[in-house]
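Aim 2, interim progress. The first record below pairs a target sequence with its structure tokens.
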Amino acid sequence: MKVIPILAVIFTIVGTVDASLLISIDGVVDPPDTQVIIFPSEEVVVGISGDGLTSGWQTLFLVVQGTASINGGNILYPGSDCWYLDLEEFADAIGESPQDTLALISDVLAIDDIRDMSYIGLYDSASPPAPLVGTLVTGINFRCEDVGDVILSLADVEGNIFDQQVIHQIPEPTTLLLVCFGGLALLKRSKCK
């Protein structure tokens, strides 16, 4: 099986987890999960920021648990060897289908129900390497595809989770209003009998 040797090479350079890496949503770094509310078909821009406590040697996965998708991404980290691969690009790189890749990543990270992911490498061969500080990755489009909570996790290849954000996907206000009016009409109708 060709996947195991490729993954062994990909996962050999692992950064230490002494730095805090945080998810930002629409420019707000590590927002309280109660404030991240979006409607179906709405998009927010996700980014990754660092606190500067360590130099750049990180291999990361940004994973989505729940019905939503992520795509795009721009590396802002000034390191010499950086990359951002979405699910399809990563699956192609390891020679697997996107579904098999999600199952593999789910096993590696020990996270269930992964629906989408991105693979991010932040490396700098300079001595000393540039620190992981400020905005490192931006322009990741998170698209709401249904109602319900979605968990966005940033983890390294060893399954250590740096940050998680809960995104509450709620119905459009007009849909919610129609459901309320329908419920009131049914309630009124049952009281009239």
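The second target in this work package is listed in the same format:
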Amino acid sequence: MTRLVQYLHSIHPLSPDLRDHLFRVLKSTELKKKDRLLKAGEVCRQIYFVEQGLFRCSYVEHFKEVCVWFMKEDDVIVSVSSFFPQEPSYQSIHAMENSRVYSITYDELQQIYYRFPEFNYIGRVLTEKYYYLSEERHYLLRMKTASERYDHFVRRYPDFLERLPATHIASYLGIALETLIRIKNKKQKSDLDQAKK
């Protein structure tokens, strides 16, 4: 929990009262690999901070799973379309590794915003961060080639290549698994050719 408090404090200094309150209300949860944090059709009633582990958010369309995002250590997890209006989610969230998260409920978050005005600044900064990431992904899917999407993914999330199955990466990039394998092989060949020069 100290890690989360330090992270929030790095965005905006926390008052001693707010820090004490967070230590009282935050709930710790341990998950095993493949455990589900949220099931499609359920209401997302908590917002989570990842202290350890990796998660994927996905939905099913035409009997096919579509990966929307991956979140790891020091990320915040929430189904935006479910949590804020408190409506059933069309997404599921799964642990990709053994993980530990801290959470607070929707009602607790609203109370924190009301009682501790400085937390509104933190909430705004986090909202801006994840809105930007969402827009970036939509731009990549609309405007970039499969190879450019892969290059961007490698630059931004290099550790995910070892931590995630290729099928989930391909789904996130909006390409077929065969296309991802072909791109990776072409990049590896190019790297080998460059190394020989």
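The chain has a mean pLDDT of 92. This observation will shape the mutagenesis plan for the next reporting period.
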